[in-house]
Design a protein that fits this description.
about 400 residues, single chain, 2 domains, two-stranded antiparallel sheet, 16 helices, Hypothetical protein af1432
Length: about 400
């Protein structure tokens, strides 16, 4: 049994760890994982508050996860609930109070909320004990709700959550709220940057870049796991890749509207100009100050390269002009990039970007059906795409389909 001092030391270390995570989705996953571990909860979920609504944003369930094949993830549908006293999470968000329930099937008549058994009935899961508490920022504003489900004793029995754990978990929640607010701010800054591209190119929507970022993160995790990369390194890299992948087409802000907004396929000359968005985007990160800059540079520059060497832009040299501090770009078309010579992040984003393009409607085509999409992706293995990355893509295809539902085009 840990002492109070040891528990606080662990919480401080956890707090420091989560403040290093910059992407919202990766952060939510880590917050829920660590919260569950702290109180030995079998399951849990996170809701993010937006105005008067709670969006169901992330969930974990060890019992249901154990029933899946190794490497597969649980698929959850996104939904929202109102911030009011009718549901447990809604009550917590509405009042700012922590709720600790021994058995949600035996709620007393004195509480205003009820428990929706629909999920349990569909999955044959039995929710029993619940500990739900709010995320509050330093201004005491509620950012969301974390709900932990089914505390387990050492012998695996479902037990109530201990009241003495509440102050510690609330301490962690307050730290997590600060990290969450920072991550939301980082995501907002990236999306604002990308709205410039969206104003120029109608295809570069917030939904598209969120999908490509999320796809890339999932594909990378499957690829890296097969390669034997450590869990710690995978978590760190997923955080980096999730954000950098969103900026893959940021160079389009420098391409003419005549080309970007043409309501048809580009001709040969127009396409040659469009290709320039790769190194124009990379120029923004050509003087890297962080791992993020380095990742964004390679992704912007190389995400249209092909495994067989028939992609673009090929070898690009960036020379800094000492007098103007600007980068001069030289494209060496005779030196093509291929295979492992293409950065792994770019190889992954290439798969994510093409997959999203095929699944999406364009002015010159309708969205393809899933069978057609998957057939094309498989046929391009070893040609357009890295075969190992394509294997990872198919391993998580069900998760990618769910991400498409989470970020639909408006």
């Amino acid at each position: 049994m840990l002492s109070e001092k040891e528990i606080l030391a662990n919480l401080i270390n956890l707090g420091q760890a989560i403040t290093q995570i910059k992407d919202v989705d990766i952060l939510l996953e880590r917050i829920l994982t660590e919260s569950r571990r702290f109180v030995n909860a079998d399951a849990g979920s996170i809701y993010i508050k937006t105005n008067d609504t709670l969006l169901f944003s992330y969930a974990q369930n060890a019992t249901l996860q154990a029933k899946l094949p190794q490497g597969k993830k649980l698929i959850y549908s996104s939904f929202s609930i109102p911030v009011n006293n009718k549901s447990i999470a809604g009550y917590v968000a509405n009042t700012g109070k922590t709720v600790n329930i021994a058995d949600v099937y035996c709620l007393p008549d004195t509480v205003p909320f009820s428990f929706d058994k629909q999920f349990d009935e569909v999955t044959k899961y039995r929710s029993k004990s619940i500990l739900a508490f709010p995320f509050k920022n330093p201004e005491n504003e509620i950012l969301g709700v974390l709900q932990l489900i089914n505390a387990k004793s050492h012998d695996g029995s479902i037990v109530p959550f201990h009241e003495e754990d509440e102050p510690f978990i609330m301490h962690f929640a307050n730290t997590a709220a600060i990290a969450l607010e920072r991550a939301q701010m980082t995501r907002a800054i990236i999306l604002r940057m990308l709205r410039m591209a969206e104003m120029r190119d109608p295809k570069e929507t917030g939904a598209h870049v969120n999908r490509v970022g999320a796809f890339s993160s999932e594909i990378y995790q499957a690829w890296a796991t097969k390669k034997g990369v450590s869990g710690e390194e995978i978590d760190k890299t997923r955080d980096l890749l999730r954000m950098a992948a969103m900026l893959h087409d940021v160079g389009k802000v420098a391409i003419s509207d005549v080309i970007l907004k043409k309501p048809a396929r580009l001709d040969i000359d127009e396409f040659e100009i469009m290709k320039e968005h790769t190194f124009l985007g990379a120029k923004l990160f050509a003087d890297p100050r962080s791992d993020f800059d380095e990742a964004a540079f390679h992704i912007a520059l190389e995400h249209h390269e092909r495994w067989d060497g028939n992609g673009y832009p090929g070898n690009v040299v960036f020379d800094k002009d000492a007098s103007t501090n600007e980068f001069l770009v030289t494209v060496q078309n005779e030196h093509k990039k291929s295979g492992a010579g293409i950065h792994i992040f770019a190889r992954i984003v290439a798969v994510a970007d093409v997959y999203d393009a095929l699944c999406s409607r364009r002015c010159y085509k309708e969205a393809w059906d899933d069978d057609h999409v998957f057939k094309n992706m498989k046929e391009e293995s070893g040609k357009h795409f890295d075969p190992d990355v394509i294997d990872a893509f198919f391993e998580v295809s069900d998760v990618l389909n769910n991400i498409r539902r989470q970020f639909p085009d408006e």
